[in-house]
Structure formats: C-alpha cells, structure tokens
Amino acid sequence: MMLFYLPGIYLLRSFQSRQWSLRWLLLSPLVAAMPLIALLIDAPVMNQADLVSKMTLGLVTLPAVVASIHLFRWLVTKSWRPLFTWLTVSLVISALLASLAIFVTQHASPHAIEQGEYYASDGWWFIGCYGAYFTAILLTAWIVVMAMAHLIQSAMQRVHRT
C-alpha cells in the first residue's frame, strides 16, 4: 500500500498547493525511499507475490483508504450532509446489489430455492460491505475526475492568460 499512497499523496499535494520550498523538496527522497523499503520487506503473506501483485493489492485497497479518510474527516469536522449522503448512497447500492443477487439466483436455475428453503439473513452485513466498497469506488472516481477537471481548467486559464 505504501507503493501508491505516500508518493501519490505527496505528488497530489505538491501540484495542488504548488509548494516548492526547500523543506518540501528535501522530503522527496524520504517519500521515494518508503515504497522501496516496503518492497524490500519480507512479509510472510507476500513471499510469493511479485511487484504486479503488490501493486494490484494497493490499487484494490485504495477506495477503502480514501473513503475511510473522508469519513473520518467528515466526522471530525461535523460535516453531516456529505456523511449522510455517503451512507444513503451506500445503503441504496447495498439494496440494489441484494436485489440483483436474489434476481440472478432465482433465474440462474428454476429450482434455485426448493420448497421449504429460505434465504438466511445471517450474512446481511456482508452485502452492506459490498455496497460500502462500491460507494468508496464511486467516491474515489469522483475525486479523481474532479482533480483532473481542476487541473485541466487551471491549465486552460494559464493558456488563455498568455
């Protein structure tokens, strides 16, 4: 996860704030060294994993990290509207995923549920996790699109000034 997050946050913050002080630039070797150290760590889980597997793992966990940071920030700053909007969208997506799962199960085979069988509600929270993860993917995509739009807009303004 260090392969993506630390250098990505450093570069994003550098380009957004355009902060090029000596102190900020002296931080760059440390930021570059952290992912290299993470690659050299011999974790038991990642013994057989290659670089692509590690990068894929980092990319898959990115939406969860982004959503966690935003949810924590919204809680600390008491920004209730985005928090409740995120929770509402997450619940709606969870309900849609649950109905899609039931629909696919019913139509996959005509005898998916035999007489006397029923859907167990023991794992209801699991579909909520899927909904929250999908909402986190949407939030991450929204942040990336808005950052790209902002960069394009600022570049267009600089071109028109000259």
From TrEMBL:
Protein name: Membrane protein
Organism: Rhodopirellula maiorica SM1
Superkingdom of origin organism: Bacteria
Keywords on record: Membrane, Transmembrane, Transmembrane helix
Membrane-spanning intervals of the chain: 21-43, 55-76, 83-104, 124-152
